[in-house]
Every structure is written in structure tokens, then in C-alpha cells.
## 1
Amino acid sequence: MRPTYTSDLWWKNAVIYCLDVETFKDGNGDGIGDFRGLTQEIDYLAGLGVTCLWLMPFYPTPGKDDGYDVTDFYSVDPRLGTLGDFVEFMRTAHDRGLRVIADLVVNHTSDQHPWFLEARSRRESPLRDWYVWSDVPEPDDKSQIVFPDKEDSVWEFDEKTGQYYLHSFYRHQPDLNVANPAVRDEITRVLGFWMELGLSGFRVDAVPFLIENVDPELADPHDFLADLRAFMTRRKGDSVLLGEVNVPYEDLVTYFGDGLGDQVTMCFDFIGMQRAWLSLARGDAGPLASALRERPKPPKDCQWATFLRNHDELTLDKLTEEERQEVFRAFGPEKSMQVFGRGLRRRLPPMLGGDLRWIKMAYSLLFSLPGTPVLFYGEEIGLGENLEAEGRMAVRVPMQWAPEGGFGRGEPERTMPDGAFGPERVNVADQKRDPGSLLRWIQLLIERYRECPELAWGSCTVLDADHPAVLAHRCDADGATVVILHNLSDTAREVGLTLDGLDGCLLTDLLEDGTTRVPDGGRVSLHLGPHGCRWLRASAPDVPPEDASAKSEHSR
Ligand code: NOJ
Ligand code: CA
């Protein structure tokens, strides 16, 4: 494909970097990260090679769900700065070629939001119908309770007005009634506001919950998503919605707008992520390979967002009980590491025992899977966790910039990991100077990922490798091919593969030096070290490898 396509449809091979302003960098010495601190580090992010920042909620909040409980959708949490600081940050990000998206948390508000305070003040309140009320606590499906450690119902009684309100999450997060046209209008205005300030789109929180309470008798709940997307496209043609949609693949396609692709532009691949962890636990490529084979092709111009970890628990809710226990045993055997009976409150490097070779292979996998990779801040340096922190806060630790912490002039409000993952061992400054560091590896993966648009744009085929521990796949686009191999086990292997149509081609290693000629018949034997990985570009004998990419005119 032409480079112009990859800039018009920028999200299809973006590298998204999720960060919380509060934990990234403190610019004024009060121990809390802020927009001024983040702005100081824009060059670091641009240098890393990421192309789009995803800001976790930065709106005013009582902070009972780390900002996912908003009291004003049109403003900045004063602890993080002012709207002025936000605009300066946006300008600097754009200057360095970075796009920015932000969390859109409109399934619910905080119970301290002025809308809810008004709505609950009396039944006749003009805002009463902005939330979802019931005379009786409707029967709960206990399996639908998202935070079973704190809640046993999704209905909460409101003493003053004698009705129950719906809260899909915590009781302090009443659900908005998006069936109400006035609520839809207001949400649309929120999108318009931030887009006017330069955002390229939104990560939409809890999408299935957002539309679930819309009565299908009255309207197709999916219309709301299509309306939002149409609104955004009218205002800014290349803006995107990145949906948090953790549902089985067969139900998920409707969120892309079935075949139309007119709703959520990108969906996180929760199923692929969970199967990847099962594969890592077993040292067997099978579960991940099956997810890749089952995963529906997104509609034209839509994309999967791939990830290994995020700011929440590593949810394993779509595995069977037995599989979940296998992953628990491998990566979080202690009860204190588990949460909600379904997930692990851990970051990747400690789960992989700090084994750099294994960690590097895991990220190579992430960047080579078809889709748009999403990193959670600190993954690039192997940031650890703090299990002393409550629940999911364990993974939301301050970024470690230097051996002494480097978060800012003051003591960070949140505690950094210690021991093998403390700042003296894991930090940006040291890794910048170390060519063998994880930071340099991630930078290389990003560079190669961007140079190989076939990974994100092409058609992906899982190949039959002759060992169960090895995942082999190829991505083809516009006559160009990349072949990728990962050894999920810690034993070196020779892997036999048949590469149809590549007879006589040269395979050039993209992550290290090396070339292999594909013999007639297309059968190759390739070496993989323990937890080894290889990215191989195929080129015809008369084409230099660097000209054989789908981004080059030669490939067609
Ligand atoms: C999903 C977010 O990722 C999570 O952190 C939050 O608690 C819930 N939605 C509720 O907003
Ligand atoms: Ca601060």
C-alpha cells in the first residue's frame, strides 16, 4: 500500500501509548504527575517511536475509581494542571508528530457529578431521566457484577427519592441513561469539545455497558455508536473510537458496525490477549494460534488493537476455569496477586520472572501480531508492580525516569516498586545508554513494525510450524511478505516451515543480522534460540530487501 494510505488511515498501524498524567511525570514538585511534567517528556515519547498517546481520565474527580468517576467532562483535574496546560501539551505533542486520544467515560458519572446531585434531589428533577431508576432492585445476574469484591448488586437504593439507580460498576458510579436524547446530545458535545482542542479520538470506556440499557424496542442501541462516529467524522474525517469491548468474537463484530465499519473504529482484542497469556503459561503456541485463526477480519478501515497488559487487572474471564487456574499458577500463584476471581493485578516483567529474553520475546509477539499495538506506560522499561497498593492500583505505579526515581522534585504520592524492580534497577536513564536494554528493544520493534506495514495491513496466515512451542505466521500485502517466528519455550529449536510462493527468495532478518535462502519447494529450516524470535523479510533475488516492503513501489 502507498505511504499515503498509512497516513490517511493512521490508526491501522499506529503505536498507541497509554499513560496516566498523574503517574507519568511531576512538573511542579508536589508528587503528583501533571500536564507540565508530561509535556517535558514529549521528546522521550516521540523518540521511542510511538505515534499516538492515549490519556487515561484527566477530568475532575473524587478519585474513587482512579479518575473513571468524573464530576466534570469539560475540564482538567486541578491536581494535574489547567486547561491552559492541556492545550500547551497538545500543541507540543502535535509539533512532535504525536496524535492524542483520551478516555471517554460516559457509561456513568461520579455520584458527585452536579447532574447526579440534581437528578437525585427529587423525582421531578428535569435531570431525573438522565440516569436509570427503578422502583424495585431488578433481579441481578450475579455474573454481571464487575467488581464482586465491593458490590453485590448493580442497583443502589436512594433514600431521599425512594428508588433504586443502576450502577454497572461501583455504587458511586451511577449509569447515565443514554436512551435519553438529551444525554446523547450532551455526550456528543463532550466529544466535540475535546476534538476542538485537538484530540484525534477517544478510547471508549465500557462500551457494551454504555449501550446495554437502551431499550431495543425504542431504538437500535448500536445507532448511538454510529451516531457518535458520524458526528466525529463530520467534524474531523480521520478521528477514531477505540472501544473497550470485552465480549466473544462473534458478538464483537456488531460493535464495528457489522460489515459497515461505521461504529467503533478499533476494538481491543481481549480474546487474543487472554489466549496469548495461556500460550505463555504453557509454552505452547496453540491457544494464541487458534485465537488468530478464529478472530474475525475487521471491516474495511477498522482494526484490532492488540495488547498484553493494561491499567486494569489482566482479565482472564474468557478462558475456562481450568485454563484460568493454569495462568494463575504460572504467573500469579499467590492470592494477593489475584483479583475479582478472574484476573491478575500484575505487570508483565515480574510475571515473567524478570527474564529479559522471555520479556523481549513477549513484546516481539505483541508488535508482530496483526493489529495496532497498545503499550501501557512503563512497559518499555519493564516497570514492575507494587502489590502493597490496593486492587488494580498495583500496576499504576509512578514512571521510573532515573536511578533515584526521577519522577519529579518531590516524593511521589504513589509508591514505586522496590527490590529487583526498584528505580535503581529499572529506569529510563540507564536503559537509554544500554544497547541491550528492553527500552532499546522496544524502540527497535516499533521502528520495524512501522517499516513493515504488511503486519497491520496485510493478510495474516498462521503457518504450520513443526513444533507446538513455535508460533509462525506470515503477513502479505501488495506482493510483499514478512515471516515471523516465536519460540514460546526456553529450549532452542530448529523449525521446519513451508513458505508457499517464496521459492528462491531471500529471507533477511530484521531484528539482527542474517539471511537465509528459501530453496525450491519452499521448505526452510530456521533456528530459534530459547524464547527466540525472528522477523524475516522476503525479497526476490533481484530486489534489495529494503525495497521489498509493501510501503515501497517495488513491491507491486
Ligand atoms: C473500565 C476501566 O478500564 C476501568 O479502570 C474502570 O474501573 C471501569 N471501566 C469503570 O469505568
Ligand atoms: Ca504535580
## 2
Amino acid sequence: MKARKSLLYETFKSYMPLKKYFIENKKPLLVGLFCLLIVDFLQLLIPLVIKRTIDTLTFQTATSHILLKYGLVIIAISLVMAALRYVYRRLLFGHSRMVEEKLRNRLYNHIQKLSPSFYHRTKTGDIMARAVNDINAVRMATGMGLVALTDGLVLGLTAVGFMMVIDFRLALISIIPAPIIIYMTRILTRRMSTQYEDVQKIFSNLTERAREAFAGIRVVKAYSRENWEYEKMVQEGKAYIRGNLRLAKTIGLFFPMMAIFTNLGLAIVIWLGGRQTILGQITTGDFVAFISYLNLLTWPLMAIGWVTNLIQRGSASMRRINRVLEEVPEINEPRHPQVVAPIRGEIRLEGVGFEYPGQRGLALSGLDLTIEKGQTISLVGRVGSGKSTLLQMVPRLFDPTEGRVLIDGVDVRLMPVKRLREAIGFVTQEAVIFSDTVRNNVIFGREGISPGEFEKALSVAHIQDEVQALENGMHTILGERGITLSGGQRQRLTIARALISDPPILILDDAFSMVDTRTEEGILNQILEMRRGKTTLIVSHRVSTIRRANLIAVLDQGKLVEMGTHDKLLEQRKEYTKLYERQVLAQELEMEH
Ligand code: ADP
Ligand code: MG
């Protein structure tokens, strides 16, 4: 009993974050529930009208006038019921849609604020499952669950009440199958929803496989693997049919089972109630009304069985959603933000160390580095030496696990996060393009960008001509829903995105890897021109780019191993010289093409 109670309590508690939406929306909710109760009440009146009719018929007091009156009563009841049903469906299902929308927005807004370490731990698929399946389950629980629970309880209890008024003993006996109906509904609806989910999963596998095969059709053809792909598709199709058949079997079992048990009740009533009618203990009208109530009872019984599932599933989903909502972003707004003057761009790293969450070993350690305002610095080092990790510390995508990062002498953790990030233009290693227009991809929601600034950013990034050549120019849609750009074009667009606000600090992390050497040089010339007096951090593979920095920092296994100008580092003939010689060779090879 105790376990049951705590389960009920846990279920109830999981829905608490929705409380405010229920309060906000209490008027339509109460009106909706009120209409629902009236409909239930009217429904219960119908058997009474039938009883009256039959009694007047059996006692031979019926006149055509009376019969017409009863007929009209039934019509009136049905009309009012229809109208009120419409009203409560709109109000109550409308409420559940509202809850769904607010919860989804809240979840989205929250997830967006979480730190990269959350995304690191959580699969995108899981986040999508929270946003789609779990929110759906909550909607079902707060909409259909609420309606069917109220409806089922009220209609069920009052129907039983009316039956007891007619004949107490008969009522008790005829509801013997009721618990079986509730139990069977619970079991079978649970099985149905699991099987339904399986079917959906198989279907999404099937479509994903088809999508992949068509997207990669050139590879499939080049290897002449059409039959192999076809066979895999046939297998998916078979699995889909098997899943659907399993579901059909359960559904096929459900309704006949329900019919058997409801008819069992009916049989009991005919046998025992019929006898009581003959003995004159109840009237023929009572007998028929009793049967009508028993019929009315079928839906509430199934509803209760079904709804307890809906509410439990919704509760499990709510618990998963709550766990995400309880996640605290690790990159926090400082409690007492230091109001800084406009950021100038001096960057200092003091004893910076960093360990990726869930990873053993330091990605960065003991890093001391000062970049003066207006300097251009190149970070060089082998793949995995920690360049990208270091750069991510500046806009606080990660906070160092040891030491600190200062900008203009202020710890970045004490700056308002928005101010800090707005002062930094960051071209990440992955050139991320969103499904939107060229213009929106570059301006990216920032305000007060003039057409001239937009043009300038495109021209410095050497992408202007290509944008103009597109059918709809800067209004062309890119990404999944639009045209596909080459890797180099994507990179140049993301460079334009970073340049457009002319930030005091610019970070280019491997931003030219898919751009040819000559274009890289062209872009770099203009960027360095444009950024005179401003701080710029560059990671590039090409020596022609690296050597133009005022300062070169060489990283190896997360440590700063050498630092200085190009010429000075070459003289030292250490790590940098090795890297340099390798890259000169690579660049010469590239130039020959
Ligand atoms: P670089 O940019 O110089 O190639 P990174 O900064 O990307 O180097 O990587 C430095 C080290 O951190 C590598 O050992 C790499 O495996 C590790 N690392 C990079 N990104 C992650 C991540 N998201 N999670 C865990 N480890 C990472
Ligand atoms: Mg990198």
C-alpha cells in the first residue's frame, strides 16, 4: 500500500512543473470540465427517458402525444450534448496544445543555454526524443488523459449509482466483469503503444536507409552495390510488415475481448434481471434502463484502463524532461558582473589547464600566454595539440579547469557573457551553415548591419561574386532545404559571418582548410588590412599565412613549447622548424597542381 501511495505521489509530483500552465489557463479549463460534466449528466438521462417510455407502454398509459414528447426530449438532449461536446473538446484539447507549446519552448530555451559539456554527454537523438516523443506523451496525458479520466470516473460512478438505485444486488453482480475490463484494457493498450512505437522506429529506419542510399547514390553505383542496397531495403520492408502485423494482432484481440466481457455482464442482467422483472420486483422499463446503463459503462471502464497508462507514460516523460530542465548551465552569468569598458582586445592566459568532461588526461596544461591588443597571433601544432581547445576558452565555450583567461585584465568569468561573446568573431573549424538565406546566414540576427557592411564582409571573404551568381543572390536559401555549397564556399561564408560586426577580437580556427592557397592569401591580406589595431587569432596549415603573424605560438600535447616571430623560431631550429619544413613541402606540392 505504501509503495502504491508513493508511486501516485511521484506521478503527481512529476507533473508539478506544469502547474503554472494550469493556473494560467484555469478559466477555459474549468468551463471545459463543467461542460464535460453536463454532457455526462445528460448521457445518464437518456436511459431514464427510455425507462419512462417503456413503462408507459407496458402499463398502457402511452398516448402518441407522450411518445412524441419523449422523442423530442431525446433530440433536445442530443443537440445540447453535441454542442457541449464541441465546446469542451475545443477547450480541453486546446489547453493540452497550449501546455505542449509552452513546455516545448521552455525546454528548447533551456537546452540552448546549456554548456557544450551537456551536448558532449547527450546524444542529439536523445534531445530530439525529449522534444518530440516525450512532449507528445505529456500532451496526451494532459489532454486526452484529463478528459477521459474525468469522463470515465464521473460517468462510470454515476452509471453504477443509477444501477444501484434500480436494484442494488443486480448492480453488484453485473459489474463483476468490470475489473477484468479495466485490467485487460491496461495490459492491451500498453502493449499497443509499445508496438506502435516499434512500428514507427522501423519505419524511420526504413526511410533513413532510403534517404541515405539516394544521397549516396553515386557511391552505390560506382561500387555497383544496387542489389545489395535493394536487399537491405527488402529486409527493412519485411520488418515493417512484421511490426504492423504484431500491432494488428493486439488490436484484433482487444475489441473482441472487450465485447466478450461486456456481453458477459449483459448475460447476467438478462438472466437475473429478467427473472426479477417477471417476479415484478423491477419494471420492464427498469430492466431496459439497467441494460442501457450497463452499455454506457463500457466506455468509462476502458477509459480508466487506458488513461492510467497515458498518465503513467506522461509521467515517465515528464521525469525525463524534468531531468533536462534541472540541468544547470556550467557557463554561468557572473553573480556580480564586472562592468567593463568596451572590450579592447588584450588576451592573457594564466596557467590555463583543461580536461574535457569524461575524458582522462589534460587537453591543455600550464599555459601562459599574452596577446597584446592589435596583435595577430598564429597558433600552430600537430592535429590534437590543443589549438581548438585553447581558442574555445576565449568566448567561454568551455571554462578552464585550472588557471584563468583575462581580457583587458578582467577574468572572462566575471564579464557579462553576452558582452564577451559579442566582442568576438569566431570562425569554428566546422563551417556550419543553417537552412536559411545567404543573408541570414551572414547577418545571423544581428541588428544595425548596413548593406554596405554586408557587401564589405562578403567581399573581404572573397565570396561576393559567387553569391551574386546565385539565382536569388543573397536571398538564396542554403542548406538542407536549399542549394548545397562547396566546403570552401561554406568556409568563406562563415568568415563573412565573423567579419561583419568588425569585432575587437577575431578567431579563425582552421578557417581556410578548404580554400586554395591563393584565395587564402587574398582573404588574409584584406583581413589583416581591415584589422589593423585589432586582435586576431589564426590557426592555419599554410606557412604563408602563419608567418605573417606578429607572434607564433607552438603547441604540443596541450603545452606551449615555443613562442616568437617566424624568423626567431626558425633560428631556434626546434619544433617550429620541423613543422615549417613539412608544411613548405606540402605547400609546394599543392602549388604544382
Ligand atoms: P587541435 O585543434 O590542435 O587539432 P584539439 O583542441 O581539437 O586539437 O584537441 C586537443 C585534445 O583534446 C585532443 O587530444 C583531442 O582528442 C581532445 N579533444 C578535442 N575535442 C574534444 C572533445 N569535444 N571531447 C573530448 N576530447 C576532445
Ligand atoms: Mg582544431
